[in-house]
């Protein structure tokens, strides 16, 4: 007996797409194969200061329980559909044992932190003084111009963060047109 294909779900603009909806979408054969990419390189040799702006060749010292939101970046989404967004930040810090930060991605609001579409996640690589932060999410987006903000925070006391030769990247990939 052949099971019926589930009804294709509907989405609202800016919605974070749940795993259940993604599973339902996987039953439909209209995935985008020539997916356009949006890739933003937000800079190297930068660190973030406590007022929320990118500064060059600066040094953060002895910070405790701070949070930083990058200024909004405006992007043009060429197609209405389900987009996969990824945010990456590589951060040098001391001491090496500190737990420096968590990263979160917000979409769609230039005046505030907007709609949270990617939950906090920290992935540490290596055992040294560099932490790689990454978060990703699937989000339904309407074609047009929108704002994206990247947010990160730390609860570590006495951490020193260096921005030298570290990159911040944001990328988006269309998975399915709606």
Note the main attributes of this structure:
mainly beta; 178 residues; Jelly Rolls; single chain; two-stranded antiparallel sheet
Descriptive overview:
The structure is a single chain. This protein has a single domain, classed as Jelly Rolls (Sandwich), CATH 2.60.120. It starts with 18 loop residues before the first helix and ends with a strand. The protein is globular and about 45 Å long. With 178 residues, the chain is mainly beta. Strand 2 and strand 3 form a beta hairpin. The longest helix is centred in the N-terminal third of the chain and has 7 residues. About 27% of the residues have low confidence. Helix content is 4%, strand content 51%. Strands 1, 4, 5, 6, 7, 8, 9, 10, 11, 12 and 13 form an eleven-stranded antiparallel β-sheet that branches. It has a two-stranded antiparallel sheet with strand order 2-3.
